[in-house]
Amino acid sequence: xxxxxxxxxxxxxxxxxxxxxxxxxxxxxxxxxxxxxxxxxxxxxxxxxxxxxxxxxxxxxxxxxxxxxxxxxxxxxxxxxxxxxxxxxxxxxxxxxxxxxxxxxxxxxxxxxxxxxxxxxxxxxxxxxxxxxxxxxxxxxxxxxxxxxxxxxxxxxxxxxxxxxxxxxxxxxxxxxxxxxxxxxxxxxxxxxxxxxxxxxxxxxxxxxxxx
Length: 212
What we know:
23% helix; globular
């Protein structure tokens, strides 16, 4: 696994993106989906595998509706540290625009019978152009597949399998964009903390008034 292409495309003196390195640990494999408002809005779908994040750009975003077969264009591997990246990539840099984390969690590599397999076997399946996996995220749950177009180099389809998490209703990732971002979550936590402080201050004021 290598991050050569990732680093060749970026000037880390002018972008806040992590330079990162190939790194893996003994833990559940993670995934992240980032909403990337660059020249064209798209979603970056990333799966941890053998020390990097395997990455695809999904123009319409993932879907929980099995009828939606989303185009996914494979791009360069990203460092594991990119999984928590949010912020603005300045103009003049590759991929300039705003990035938010739309969803994150862990995933389980599986075979065609939805049985768990090793990361090594999953990597072989990726090379062969067809992978299946179960996702455990906030929005993305259950079984999915990524299938490569025959004769294509980078074009894949992201497909939701029919299971208890699937829906037959129209699905748009944009409907969940704000509430799922780490920035939104942080602001919500700060607001909750501030609200709690205001409530505590009011109690102090009331106590002082009563003691007068």
